[in-house]
Design brief:
Length: about 575
């Protein structure tokens, strides 16, 4: 009996050792899979489909290695062991979803090959290929969403190091990949219709000017109406803000929260259409303004700012202008956001900027450019919120509102439970924001009652010359017409908190600052104004209190600006 017990104990020890080896091997395989998966975006962006397929095969093979460990007869025993049970469960979850995801992604290779075939006429988008890509992208997006949900629920704390490392690596990969797949699926479901796959459509392009900031990017000073028919694009008409008369009453109803923060000027001046964080409201406002002017509503509204054009020029090269000069990625900000307002009268500004739009459209649509080159060029502007799309069709809009193309509030919703959004709205009435530098500093902490607390400090710095009020014309300074002396920069700073958080006041230099609190687009939002003399710096500190939670990992989104803000974030662990 004693010998039998010793033999059984030895077998148990051997079994435990073998199970531990198999669990560790599975963890290493998962880490390898994550490392390989991180190389996929680069291969896709480069249009190297052969390399993409090799990487997909490698990811699949490493997931198979982990799956083989799961199928080991000892695995069932390991699941019952208190030391290894959580590790075994984690590997099982990952291998199940890893197989589904790699299978779905493998199907995308044929789709990618069709989309990146040698382009023909640059003015024609292959709407058939886009539509054909939708089903495969939707399947891959669903697989990625399921994998992200299940793998995010796996607690890496307490797992053995190889498993914990593999889990964290895969979580990071999925956090990056899933939103991109979801956006691609939504776009390929909506874009063919917008581009006239089923017949002629109109697309109103709303050009935002970041030299005069608004929540969504800048004032909507220029519009261009495109017609699309089976992917062929034509520039039909242009208009600037002077052609839309100020309304004595709002052109349409806007949500109460937006009016509380910014007043009813949001819907009385066309330039303010993108003051709201809800791009569904912005799109409807732009449509209403255009319809009021022309009598016909567009079939969709696309918003973009000049830095989107800069990204395209970095990929395509300079564009010749009518005056014999060239518009380049390097001189775009100065040529479009500074010089016209310093040197040209209002009517001359319109002529110049509309001429630039004509030249850009003619040049970009005449060039045969690989779709992946376009995609690579637009990736950063899209992720930064510089490009948004709205459709009056409820189904299409529902698809868009869950992606980064759905505007500021949609990006905020998709950014996670600890995401804060910072928005800037100019009150100067001129183009002074080319001189505005910003910094965002976020500090998380834990209160004695267990609730989380976050402060968001906004440091604004005016780099305008001391004599800006005398040196520049009213088109730059606002001319004092909106309550600020020429040369000052006035900004309404708004901070939107995650769901479940509430505003707890604003301070400037340690003293309470008057502020407005409201719910906009489903987010508790606090707003306060800051005015800066040339060469001066000011800081607003917004405080928010959240629910009881053990960890606070803030993220920050912000208005697309001319100069990218510096961002510093300090997370906190409670308990």
């Amino acid at each position: 009996m004693v010998w039998a017990s010793i033999v059984m104990l030895c077998l148990l020890v051997v079994g435990l050792g073998w199970a531990a080896v198999r669990v560790a091997g599975a963890g290493l395989a998962l880490s390898d899979a994550a490392e390989t998966a991180r190389q996929l975006p680069g291969a896709v962006a480069a249009g190297d489909l052969d390399a993409t397929q090799v990487l997909i095969d490698e990811v699949s093979a490493t997931v198979d290695r982990a799956a083989q460990a799961v199928s080991d007869p000892v695995w069932g025993v390991a699941e019952t062991m208190p030391w290894l049970g959580d590790d075994v469960s984690a590997v099982g979850v990952i291998t199940e979803h890893g197989h589904a995801l790699t299978t779905a992604i493998a199907e995308l290779r044929a789709v990618a090959a069709e989309l990146v075939r040698p382009p023909g006429n640059g003015a024609v988008v292959d709407v058939v290929a886009l539509a054909d890509a939708h089903d495969a992208l939707a399947i891959a997006a669903d697989a990625a969403t399921a994998a992200r949900t299940e793998i995010d629920a796996v607690e890496s704390a307490g797992l053995i190091p190889p498993i914990a490392s593999g889990v964290r690596s895969l979580q990071r990969v999925l956090d990056q990949a899933e939103p991109g797949l979801r956006t691609a699926a939504a776009v390929t479901g909506v874009l063919p219709g917008v581009l006239g796959a089923d017949g002629p459509r109109t697309l109103l392009v709303m050009l935002q000017n970041n030299a005069e900031l608004r929540t969504g990017g800048g004032i909507t000073g220029s519009f261009a109406l495109l017609t699309a028919d089976r992917g062929a694009l034509t520039l039909h008409e242009q208009a600037d803000s002077s052609q839309f008369r100020r309304q004595s009453e709002p052109i349409m109803a806007v949500p109460e929260g937006t009016t509380s923060l910014y007043g009813d000027d949001v819907a009385r001046f066309v330039q303010n259409a993108s003051m709201t964080a809800d791009f569904a409201v912005t799109g409807a406002l732009a449509s209403a303004w255009w319809s009021g002017r022309t009598g016909t509503a567009p079939d969709a509204v696309l918003s973009l700012d000049p830095l989107v054009v800069r990204a395209l020029l970095e990929a395509t090269g300079p564009i010749p202008l009518a005056d014999g000069s060239e518009l380049t990625a390097e001189n775009l900000v100065d040529r479009l956001l500074v010089q016209p307002y310093v040197h040209l009268k209002a009517d001359e500004q319109t002529v110049f900027l509309q001429g630039v739009t004509d030249a850009l459209f003619a040049a970009l649509t005449a060039r045969s450019i690989d779709p992946l080159v376009w995609a690579r060029a637009l990736a950063e502007p899209v992720s930064a919120g510089r490009l948004s799309l709205w459709s009056p069709d409820a189904g299409a809009q529902a698809a868009l509102s869950g992606t980064v193309l759905g505007g500021a509030a949609a990006r905020h919703s998709a950014a996670g439970p600890d995401a804060f959004a910072v928005y800037f709205n100019d009150t100067t009435g001129g183009k002074m924001d080319v001189f505005l530098q910003t910094a965002i500093e976020v500090q998380a902490s834990c209160r004695a009652d267990g609730r989380a607390e976050v402060t968001v400090a906004l440091v604004l710095d005016s780099e305008a010359p001391v004599d800006a009020g005398q040196r520049f014309p009213p088109s730059v300074t606002g001319g004092g017409l909106w309550g600020l002396p020429p040369g000052q920069i006035g900004t309404i700073v708004s901070v939107s908190a995650p769901d479940g958080w509430s505003a707890a006041g604003v301070q400037r230099d340690g003293a309470p600052q008057p502020s407005v609190e409201a719910d906009e687009a489903g987010f508790a939002t606090s707003a306060a104004e800051l005015r800066l003399d040339p060469g001066h710096t000011g800081t607003l500190v917004f405080r928010f209190v959240g629910p009881v939670q053990s960890e606070v990992q803030p993220r920050v989104l912000h208005t697309p600006t001319v100069h990218e803000p510096t961002i510093a974030i300090a997370p906190a662990t409670c308990g």
